[in-house]
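Quick log. Single chain, no ligands specified.
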Amino acid sequence: MRVATWNVNSIRSRAGRVIDWMLREDIDVLGMQEIKCKESQFPFEQFAEAGYEVEMHGLSQWNGVAFASRLPMEDVSVGFASAPGFGRPDDDGSLSQEARALGVTVAGVRLWSLYVPNGRELDNAHYPYKLEWLANLAAETRGWLAAHPDQPLALMGDFNIAPFDFDVWDIAAFEGRTHVSQPERDAFAAFETAGMIDALRSRGVEGYTYWDYQQLRFPRNEGMRIDFILGSAAFDALVSEPKIHREERKGDGPSDHVPVSVDLAVELDDDDDRPMFL
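-> predicted structure:
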């Protein structure tokens, strides 16, 4: 089973490109982030015509997460229980939830598509929100691992954190900025402490996953590594063929992120009737 994650930066703008890539790379399950649409706006028909079912969580033209799968998706979870809200308080004093987390189970593997808050600036209210969101997700992860230690679990998506200095093209350019601050890096490291393993880095796969559209960042290879597949020990035992699909940053109308994928050694049902594409 080939599983991938991709911040598509607007699925309405890139549905054709995303689907073409999925068919070309024989992707079974794709977790998407920053879909930037509500359910009424999602291009379900295009995915269905290609043989994929979709689960999505989107509330506006911002944020949003989704899964597209050729295999049945079960136990769909919209958000996680302790996710903090952000923005102006509602009438009851609570903060609105953003569309940033979606969980599904496919062939016994628990997958989460995650779009971690950006943080914006170190003195912006979005920064402590980001840290709280990550801390609460880490606590949830520890609970999931304790409750289901043998179930493969993966946290996939855009973490908006570069864990090490070499995960950005020039650390000096990021002085005093988000994505590289020590609290953010500590929050990322908490997942490793909980027992999650970087499926690519642990196998020696290095490279950037994001290049800004401005200032010729991609031609100059001035990128960042902020998209990850973090897996439990049970998940990691199944992993092979980890890959960063750098070529997807090229061509017409690319996302500013590229996909990241792994193959999983899981047994599929004998009656699997997935469509075959040439």
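The chain has five helices and twelve strands.
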